Amino acid sequence: MAKTDITAPTTDAPIPALKPPAGPEAFEHMQFRSGEFWREIPAYKDVDEKTFLDWLWQSKHSVKSPDELMAAIQDLVEPAFFEDVRQGFHRAPMQVRISPYMIASIDWKNPYNDPIRTQFLPLASRLLPDHPRLSLDSLHELEDSPTPGLTHRYVDKALFLPLNTCPVYCRFCTRSYAIGGDTDTVEKAQLATDPKLWEKAFEYIASRPELQDIVVSGGDMYQLPAKSLKKIGETLLAIPNVRRMRFATKGPAVMPMKILTDAAWTDALTSIVEQGRAIGKDVMLHTHFNSPNEISDITQRAMQVLFERGIMVRNQSVLIRGVNDDKHTMRKLIKQLGYMNVHPYYVYMHDMVKGVEDLRTTIQTAIDIEKFVRGATAGFNTPTFLCDAPGGGGKRDLHSYDHYDRENGIAVYSAPSVKPGQWFLYFDPIDQLAPAAQARWRDPKEQNEMVRAAIAAASKT
Which of 117, 181, 206, 424 is 20 to 30 Å from the Cα of 310, by its Cα? Predict the structure, then answer.
């Protein structure tokens, strides 16, 4: 048999080009805002890096009122903008609290369209009427709560809410029914803010051997003192049936310097992760970046600290109009997170909560964006797009609707492993529908008929 002659390529032979070199957009996710960008804000123009990176300074100087905002940004915007904000504060279901880091991340040359401003500072001129099928507790968390501050919906998972404060308050918060203080429009419900109520939650978790997965949220666990963080973590680790624990926080997106300068807190989190690993239990940090504009070299440095300590970080975004409902923006966000070793885990449809109709998008928008970003990076760094079904149906894959009436903006989901035999409806924002559909939504009888028809169509599938 003749031997096959395999000739090794010479070292100077060119490798054939199968596709053209990647353009600049393929590398933009590797570029991070750097330098002392906060000095562009009048109130921070004399603040040095050491001070700006002090998490206590960030907390102390967070903006909580229109007057404090005016004192921070001064003449960067017109007086009409402040009045718009003032009226927005009055009508918002959430209190306002925004860190200097976020203030400095806003493009004050174009604040009306800035994705950071959109998330945290309400403007009366941008508000839309609520969809008639909205509710304050749209996910019915209180309905599935056996004791204050604990939601048990899925068989093997519970949500523990040990506090009701956050480093910032997001306008779109799904827990606007309980987070922060009372506002002009909402009287807040009780969570487990008293350590005595923590004990009741722990007792319940220990009494239910099927509970293996606990999410610690709130509020935001960033606000827990180090000793409280350790107490909660170690108590849950000591419960035999608890196998997995997730600490949820938006902190890395809005105040990443805490990880760099609050050594006691970062060490407490590290300790819980290490204790869990030693006994075969999984402890993760879940965070919440929505926009590439939230990310800077400070963020990257903070995420590197967690990575070096073996703390796995997953991200859960919310799809928000004017923030990340553009396919190129979402692609950049996902790739930038992956570059920082933050796993892009979920992208949620905006929950159907009151007072923020201007932030919601359609199911079809999410479908189109998901199709675009899939394949842009590795599959494990591609998030699942979800609808957290209103009424307590839990997280449903966006595509898993039983029926989607695009004309009238009604998606119908079922949740056979969560609440069998029930239908759960997500409604597209009315202003995104055609004029004829908008007119139908103004008629209560037509509303009921559209809903009935959508459920009937879902039943046939």
Answer: 206
Amino acid sitting at position 325 = D
Residues with pLDDT less than 50, the chain: 188
Residue 300: which residues within 8 A CB-CB, separation 6 or more?
32, 340
pLDDT digits (tens, 9 = 90+) for 105-151: 999 999 999 999 999 999 999 999 999 988 766 667 778 889 988 99
Distance of alpha carbon 414 from alpha carbon 412, whole angstroms: 7
Give the strands of the sheet with 282-287, arranged side by side: 150-152, 157-160, 213-216, 244-248, 282-287, 313-319, 342-349, 384-389, 394-397
C-alpha separations of 331 from 26, 335, 382 in Å: 10, 6, 9
d(CA 318, CA 369): 13
Burial zone of 2 (CB within 10 Å; 0-12 exposed, 13-18 middle, 19+ buried): exposed
Structure tokens belonging to residue 176: 């606007």
Domain boundaries, the chain: 29-126, 150-402
What DSSP line would sit under 390-413, residue for residue? Answer: TTTTEEEEGGG-SEEETTTTEEEE
- For domain 150-402, give the CATH number: 3.20.20.70
Longest dimension (CA), the chain: 90
